[in-house]
Amino acid sequence: MIPLKSEQxxxxxxxxxxxxxxxxxxxxxxxxxxxxxxxxDRLAAELxxxxxxxxAFKGYRGxxxxxxxxxxxxxxxxxxxxxVLKEGDIISLDxxxxxxxxxxxxxxxxxxxxxxxxxxxxxxxxKKALSEGIKQARQDNHLSDISYAIQTYVEGHGFSVVRQxxxxxxxxxxxxxxxxxNFGRPHQGPLLKSGMVLAIEPMVNMGTWECKILDNGxxxxxxxxxxSAHFEHTLAVTDKGPEILTN
Length: 247
Fold this sequence. Notes:
Layout: H1 7-28, H2 37-50, E1 54-55, E2 68-71, E3 74-76, E4 90-99, E5 102-111, H3 117-135, H4 143-156, E6 160-161, E7 167-169, E8 176-180, E9 197-200, E10 203-205, E11 211-213, E12 220-222, E13 228-230, E14 233-238, E15 241-244
Antiparallel strand pairs: 1-4, 2-4, 3-12, 4-5, 6-10, 7-8, 7-9, 9-14, 10-13, 11-12, 14-15
Helix pairs in contact: 1-2, 3-4
């Protein structure tokens, strides 16, 4: 069963999403050559603490950090460390918020200084694919309409959609029903209803869609070593259309 949120629950999820959106905006301004990913991790925790929230990822299934920092060929679940960002890198920031038991989740991929044109296109296409998926998060659409919109947009621009990792429902837990693949046929699966809250998150690779997990047991990288990008928003399905909670 896909849980439907009450007005009270939605109000709290909006507060959680607002805190996350504000933190992500601050973090984006911090990204530049010479920054260590451990510094990003510390700042993320500090920003959430200022708002009375806690990082949702820290300790989740044993994850050791507050935020995921995935660089270049790293797809998701990059662990902050003493690694220093350099000119020409790209970095995906993926952050979850727990505000009084209400969860939100968002991700963005950013250039570090100047990047090459094809990698820039990868970021732009992934960001737009998220928008295309969100447009389909409407009452009485099928869940797979989101998946289909993302896949067709991405593949139409010559990139590939990651299969191993997917979006999810969210609310009173970090991960709830339903699972939301970024690929699939249209008009399949459950109908979307007002009150559903979803975390839609296309992960897009420059080359093959295939990934592998590093020895740390967390970080996924592209199998061919080419770049990957990741964008995510938490949104509510409403009678008036999708409402993004993490702007």
